[in-house]
Write a structure and sequence with these properties.
It is built from 18 helices and five strands. It is mostly helical. The chain has two domains: 238 residues, HUPs (Rossmann fold); 101 residues, Tyrosyl-Transfer RNA Synthetase, CATH 1.10.240. The protein has a three-stranded parallel beta sheet with strand order 1-2-3. Strands 4-5 form a two-stranded parallel ribbon. Helix 3 packs across helix 16, helix 4 packs across helix 9 and helix 4 runs parallel beside helix 17. It binds tryptophan.
């Protein structure tokens, strides 16, 4: 069986380094591994609209931002089909049929959607009053069904995403099984591919909060300048009890170390080891484990570790920034990639929906089917006479 990847992001803001370690870096590796027959990466504008219906301009403006993030991180349109969800109308069509295979009760149990409803204040008992009055948009409530369409339209076998997407994958697999059992074996059950490094599973925000999120203002964006990265790292959450440099420090739950776990490689010590050479204290570290040991023992200050982290982050982001600057000078090219990708994606989705309609027996106007319908009617008439 062919190995096919589908994944994507909502265009509600530029992508941040949480996206990078959680998914983008991995996608580029998967793309270049040559192990997959096809790779689709989707800008999920229709999903973004499920809770931004009154702000389409935000979604619209962010499409090019996300596309720039993709291309500057190394997704290559020769190897990966980059497309815009709303331009593949077959996805909307599939969603409507899948709705019949899912109960409202099942949708209500989706923990990610539950959490999002709380955060957005759509819930009746919490959140802001204006959002309460608006209630939960039905489209938002049902977006996991549309996500099942995104995945199955391309017969994706692998979906690399963060762990918050696990409930969507589970629901997709249920829909696939229900569809295949009801209408015949058309759809493919996908499997989730989670990031392998624990620090990358859910990179915390710079304030140490559970997750990087635009609304919390705790993100480092891929498009941030080197200076902005420095400022954001300087303000980062560490160990609140590490008051004196000489105090022993905690590494667990210390955001600076979580970021180092996600980004630091041994070679960084050859190039940025100087960060640990101070006037009063000086260390010769060769691995992150050595830094952690010293931090735990005491004597290593936050400033040194933060300076090192800034270098590590900027070293990772610099080539991405350079490619972005180049691409920003050629925006028509970026849109051209998206247009061509959307056309390609549409061809694949059209093929799948044709198979679905055949299995569901709603392909009335296919030649033999139409002949059969006419013949059936005639036979019934004859037997009634
Ligand atoms: N829900 C994903 C997110 O919020 C975006 C998305 C939409 C997606 N459709 C998808 C991811 C299909 C993987 C597969 O980031």
């Amino acid at each position: 069986m062919s190995k096919i990847i589908l994944t994507g992001d909502r265009p509600t803001g530029p992508l941040h380094i949480g996206h990078y370690v959680g998914s983008l870096r991995r996608r580029v590796e998967l793309q270049n591994s040559g192990e997959f027959d096809r790779i689709f990466v989707m800008i999920a504008d229709a999903q973004a609209l499920t809770d931004n219906a009154d702000n389409p301009e935000k979604v619209r403006q962010n499409i090019v931002q996300v596309a720039l993030d993709y291309l500057s991180c190394g997704l290559d349109p020769e190897k990966t089909t980059l497309f815009i969800q709303s331009q593949v109308s077959e996805l909307t069509e599939m969603t409507f049929f899948y709705m019949n295979l899912v109960t409202v009760q099942r949708l209500q149990r989706n923990p990610t959607v539950k959490q999002e409803i709380l955060v957005r204040g759509f819930n009746e008992s919490e959140g802001d009053e204006a959002a309460n009055k608006r209630g939960i948009p039905a489209g938002f409530f049902a977006y996991p069904v549309s996500q099942a369409a995104d995945i199955t339209a391309f017969k994706a076998t692998h979906v690399p995403v963060g762990e918050d997407q696990e409930p969507m994958l589970e629901q997709t697999r249920e829909i696939v099984r229900k569809f295949n059992a009801t209408y015949g074996p058309v759809l493919v059950e996908p499997e989730i591919m989670l990031p392998d490094n624990a620090a990358c599973l859910r990179l915390p925000g710079t304030d140490g909060k559970a997750k990087m999120s635009k609304s919390l203002g705790n993100c480092i964006y891929l498009s941030d300048s080197a200076e902005t990265v420095r400022t954001k790292v300087r303000g980062m959450f560490t160990d609140p009890n590490h008051l004196q440099v000489s105090d022993p420090g905690k590494v667990e739950g210390n955001t600076v170390f979580t970021y180092l776990d996600a980004f630091c490689k041994d070679e960084h010590f050859d190039r940025f080891g100087d960060c640990f050479h101070g006037k009063k204290v000086s260390f010769d570290f060769h691995s992150l484990d050595e830094v952690k040991a010293q931090y735990r023992a005491g004597g290593l200050g936050d400033v040194m570790v933060k300076n090192f982290l800034t270098e590590v982050l900027n070293d990772t982001l610099e080539p991405i920034r350079a490619r972005r600057a180049e691409l920003e000078r050629n925006i028509p090219y970026v849109f051209d990639v998206l247009r061509k990708g959307s056309e390609e994606a549409r061809k694949v989705a059209a093929q799948t929906i044709a198979e679905m309609k055949r299995a569901m027996r709603i392909n009335y106007f296919d030649k033999e089917v139409l002949e059969g319908l006419i013949a059936d009617f005639a036979a019934k008439q004859a037997s009634a006479e």
